[in-house]
Amino acid sequence: MSLRIGDQAPDFTSTDQDGQPISLADFRGKKVVLYFYPKDDTPGCTAQACSLRDNYTALKAAGYEVLGVSVDDAKSHKKFAGKYDLPFTLVADPDQQIVTSYGVWQEKSMYGRTFMGTVRTTFIIDENGIITEIINKVDTKNHANQILN
């Protein structure tokens, strides 16, 4: 499944880093930065999360809610968010339902080995749940600027 700009963002319900239920529908009426990343506490994912953390005030001022999604569980998210003082919500997707519905769970290769994994992608979703932008080429160190510009 390939989502495009103008499509309705697929709704989901899961848990956040505190084990609390969270749904995309909870954010109706707000703009959402929904970013998918491969794994908690890895170099690229940490750089990306810290870019969003360091520019969180500007993102909030622009009207965005930030949600990060990976296939890590809530416990891993809690540790990652605490270690880097992340002010936004991390959504656990250990059964790969969200990454699959957004089309970011794909075959990847590294060192000649192929495997299934999350392709780093960010969806900007408007107040009505419509995808207004898709960032496929994420600059992990400057991701907040990609969103704000």
From TrEMBL:
<keyword id="KW-1015">Disulfide bond</keyword>
<dbReference type="InterPro" id="IPR000866">
    <property type="entry name" value="AhpC/TSA"/>
</dbReference>
<dbReference type="InterPro" id="IPR050924">
    <property type="entry name" value="Peroxiredoxin_BCP/PrxQ"/>
</dbReference>
<dbReference type="InterPro" id="IPR024706">
    <property type="entry name" value="Peroxiredoxin_AhpC-typ"/>
</dbReference>
<dbReference type="GO" id="GO:0034599">
    <property type="term" value="P:cellular response to oxidative stress"/>
</dbReference>
<dbReference type="InterPro" id="IPR013766">
    <property type="entry name" value="Thioredoxin_domain"/>
</dbReference>
<keyword id="KW-0560">Oxidoreductase</keyword>
<dbReference type="Pfam" id="PF00578">
    <property type="entry name" value="AhpC-TSA"/>
</dbReference>
<dbReference type="GO" id="GO:0005737">
    <property type="term" value="C:cytoplasm"/>
</dbReference>
<feature type="active site" description="Cysteine sulfenic acid (-SOH) intermediate; for peroxidase activity">
    <location>
        <position position="45"/>
    </location>
</feature>
<dbReference type="GO" id="GO:0045454">
    <property type="term" value="P:cell redox homeostasis"/>
</dbReference>
<feature type="compositionally biased region" description="Polar residues">
    <location>
        <begin position="11"/>
        <end position="20"/>
    </location>
</feature>
<dbReference type="GO" id="GO:0008379">
    <property type="term" value="F:thioredoxin peroxidase activity"/>
</dbReference>
<feature type="region of interest" description="Disordered">
    <location>
        <begin position="1"/>
        <end position="20"/>
    </location>
</feature>
<comment type="function">
    <text>Thiol-specific peroxidase that catalyzes the reduction of hydrogen peroxide and organic hydroperoxides to water and alcohols, respectively. Plays a role in cell protection against oxidative stress by detoxifying peroxides and as sensor of hydrogen peroxide-mediated signaling events.</text>
</comment>
<keyword id="KW-0676">Redox-active center</keyword>
<protein>
    <recommendedName>
        <fullName>thioredoxin-dependent peroxiredoxin</fullName>
        <ecNumber>1.11.1.24</ecNumber>
    </recommendedName>
</protein>
<keyword id="KW-0575">Peroxidase</keyword>
<comment type="similarity">
    <text>Belongs to the peroxiredoxin family. BCP/PrxQ subfamily.</text>
</comment>
<comment type="subunit">
    <text>Monomer.</text>
</comment>
<dbReference type="InterPro" id="IPR036249">
    <property type="entry name" value="Thioredoxin-like_sf"/>
</dbReference>
<feature type="domain" description="Thioredoxin">
    <location>
        <begin position="3"/>
        <end position="149"/>
    </location>
</feature>
<keyword id="KW-0049">Antioxidant</keyword>
